[in-house]
Amino acid sequence: MTLPRLTPSQMQAAVDAMVTGEGTRVAGAKLLNLNLNTFKHHLNEARRNGIVPSAAALRKSPDSVPHLKAKLKALEDALRSAEKGALTHTMIKAEIIKLADRLVDPEMPAWLFKETKGHSSPGVPSLMVSDLHWGEYVDPLQINGVNKYDTAIARARMKRLAERTIRLLGIISPDFDYPGIVVPLGGDMISGNIHDELVATNELGSIPAVVDLFEAIGSLINTLLTKFDRVFLPCVTGNHGRDTRKIWSKDRHKTSFDWLLYCFLAKHFASDPRVTFFVPDGSDAYYKIYDHRYLLTHGDQFRGGDGVIGPLGPIIRGDHRKRSRNAQIDQDYDTMIMGHFHSHMQLTRLIVNGSLKGYDEYAYQGNFPYEPPQQALWLTHPRYRITYRMPVQVDAVPEAQKTSWVSIAK
């Protein structure tokens, strides 16, 4: 007979009962009003999932020998589970980072669905933020001087991203008649150490890059909150932020510094009701604005392309495969949004983001078309769906220089 799946609270109660009772299984079962075999099952599942006694249980338990033995055994079991790799992502979020389960399956904000009546609201704006490659260094001498990128430039571009987003949306609606703004975080937030050349040339390692970027994205959100009443941030991981040689299909998020960054940002803004994070465990995030269904993914699953159509071929094929797969599991979507290719495209059925980094040595060596550093911005209208589409240019505007035609005397 298959035993029912236990909830985290049931497993936690079993571990706590061993501590607050007399330190025996019989006493723990009696405390929870369970038969002995059921209690043993709860306790075994708790240990298998690395559940440790709660602080409240430890405070309640007296310092008698049986209780101290129970505490010691519970902590030894937790250590043994951690050493075997049983420290799951759920435990990390719940016990270490102290995040609620609503990150994985949140209650979507009502303002995403409710149509504002009585005035001519332009809809909900979306600003995609992805492919920042924070910590990477792009040497202008190696790409004929068309771009440069380092941490100081990245910070300046993030500041411009917030300011110019507000400026562009102010042109469309000077009264900022928006119910809120959606900011999809699409992965490749840091450069990472996935290639030897990045290990040798990055300005910041992965952990310092996460620390620095945490402050930059926090500032971006705070700046947007000066004009918008609410911010919703769906998040997916990229391929650059991983700490494994190859990207994992299983527990992709668990091996990603992107995911860690999202979790700490969510914790930082947890007490602010205006900010909602959605950090799913899979590689795709599904959400709706009004009745328009979005699928957010990074895009590293799509490979190929050529010198004529660039990444458009693999993107279109990948979108077709995802739509076919999702139709079979009743998870159809209207628009796929993604990053990865550093090529800004806004089509009817998909939106591809640019990058904050801009043109680099890899693009130059591959003879890829030049593209300035930019991020995608668009509006979703309750009746007309996606309306305004525009890139947000994040580079400094060069001063205009007057040039004269050169003529050769006869």
Structural notes for this entry:
- By secondary structure, the protein is an alpha/beta fold.
- It has two domains: 8-87; 101-393, Metallo-dependent phosphatases (Purple Acid Phosphatase, chain A, domain 2).
- Helix content is 36%, strand content 13%.
- It has twelve helices and eleven strands.
- It has helices at 8-20, 25-32, 36-48, 55-60, 65-83, 89-96, 151-172, 196-201, 206-225, 257-268, 312-328, 361-365, and strands at residues 124-127, 181-182, 231-234, 275-278, 284-289, 292-297, 335-338, 345-346, 350-352, 374-381, 385-393.
- Strands 5-6-7-9-8 form a five-stranded mixed β-sheet, with no helix packed on it. It has a three-stranded antiparallel β-sheet with strand order 1-10-11, covered by helices on one side. It has a three-stranded parallel β-sheet with strand order 2-3-4, with helices on one face.
- A hairpin with a 2-residue loop joins strand 5 (284-289) and strand 6.
- Helix 7 runs parallel beside helix 9 (206-225).
- It is elongated.
- The mean pLDDT is 84.
Structure at a glance:
This protein is α/β, with parallel strands linked by helices and 410 residues long. The protein has helices spanning 8-20, 25-32, 36-48, 55-60, 65-83, 89-96, 151-172, 196-201, 206-225, 257-268, 312-328, 361-365; strands spanning 124-127, 181-182, 231-234, 275-278, 284-289, 292-297, 335-338, 345-346, 350-352, 374-381, 385-393.
3D shape? elongated
Task: Please identify which CATH superfamily of the largest domain we are dealing with.
Answer: Metallo-dependent phosphatases
- State mean pLDDT (0 to 100 scale): 84
- Strand order in the largest sheet: 5-6-7-9-8
CA gyration radius, whole angstroms: 25 Å
Report the biggest beta sheet as strand number plus sense, adding barrel if it closes: 5 strands, mixed
Q: What is the tally of beta strands? A: 11
Determine and state the CATH class of the largest domain.
Alpha Beta
Low-confidence stretches: none
Helix-and-strand structural type: alpha/beta
DSSP helix fraction = 25-40%
What would the CATH topology of the largest domain be?
Purple Acid Phosphatase, chain A, domain 2
The sequence of SSEs as H and E is HHHHHHEHEHHEHEEEHEEEHEE
Count every helix, treating DSSP H or I runs of 4 or more residues as helices: 12
End-to-end separation in angstroms reads: 99 Å
How much of the sequence lies in strands comes to: 5-15%
> How many separate domains make up the residues?
2
CATH architectural name of the largest domain:
4-Layer Sandwich
